[in-house]
């Protein structure tokens, strides 16, 4: 699978996690749920965004390398 394919997979799975979290929040509404969201969900989203940016940059570099070596 290509780097961009992996990025799409990570993005899709993250969307699933966020959708499940939104469903969970409907019944879990207290300060601990807010803490959980800040500590884990927000951090997950930030990390996934960072990783996706890095994957895009790596894909560009690899594409250039392939072109230069062809």
Structural class: mainly alpha
Instruction: Quickly count the helices.
Output: 2
Helical residue percent band:
over 70%
Number of domains: 1
| N- to C-terminal distance | 21 Å
Total beta strands: 0
Q: Mean pLDDT, as a whole number?
A: 95
Radius of gyration: 17 Å
What's this entry about, in short?
The chain has 70 residues and is an all-alpha fold.
Summarize the topology.
Layout: H1 3-25, H2 31-69
Helix pairs in contact: 1-2
Describe what this molecule looks like in 3D:
- This protein is mainly α and 70 residues long.
- The chain has one domain (3-69).
- The chain has 2 helices and no strands.
- It has helices at 3-25, 31-69.
- The chain is elongated and about 60 Å long.
Structural descriptors:
single chain; 70 residues
